[in-house]
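Supplementary Note 2. Why include the ligand at all?

Several targets in our set were suspected to adopt different conformations when bound, so apo predictions alone were not considered sufficient. For every target with a known small-molecule partner we therefore ran a joint prediction. The input for zinc ion is given below.
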Amino acid sequence: MDIHNTAEDIVFNTVETIFAAIQKEGNPEKFCLCDQCRMDTCCYALNRIEPRYMNSNRGMNRMEMEQLKRQQTEADIATLVYKGLRLVNHNQRPTGHDSPTVVNDEMPKPAFDIPTIVGRLFDGITFAPLADVTVSLHCNSVLVAMRNHNWQNPYTLVANAPGAFTFWPAAISADALDIHKSFEFTLKIEAPAYETITHFFKIPVVSRLQMSSSLSGDRSFKLPDLYMFPPGEVPGQRGIDDSKQPDL
Ligand SMILES: [Zn+2]
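The joint prediction is reproduced in token form.
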């Protein structure tokens, strides 16, 4: 699957523009503008807007671009970016990352760079996107660690981006380059008024050199749409987990 979340392009561009503008004005509010804060600001905004997927093999035409802009106005995203930047600056880590450019002397190490995992969640009867649902991501029965503190696991779907959830797991160190490995994940989805869903999936990843400050989030792994049903209304589990029926 080669799917791209175009909301990422818009957010990354907006962050670049705003950070450049702040720098040009002499940074009067003394924001930390290091790569880490830049990435954290991107994550903050991306977690709060609706993702927009397209097939990367097909270019986006002008009309689609216009439509995208109408749905998520640039002003909204700029507001989110500013909000994120302020929050990120209040959450600064204790060890000095507040110098304007962080130089990481560490040698890049081989790692499995897990893509962002994105999904959508709907009511199986009304098809309405859901909020106030808790989604947790597990690997080998353990909660998966996220890339940084802006990503939550478990994550509770919020009302201003109903139905959408995204995880960005931390990279996992590898023994060597070019190792092909399939990671098995379990998604557990819980809400008081619905039957709990457990969804299994695998992501194949090839180990490569991990770049400390790269915004490598241009790869997304998109899950099939998931539907929740009230207890007793699950229609024979169809469409949820039918590939997992054991062969007797
Ligand atoms: Zn910083």
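Residues 27 and 68 are 31 Å apart (CA to CA). Residues 3-90 form one domain. Comparable summaries for the other entries are listed in the accompanying table.
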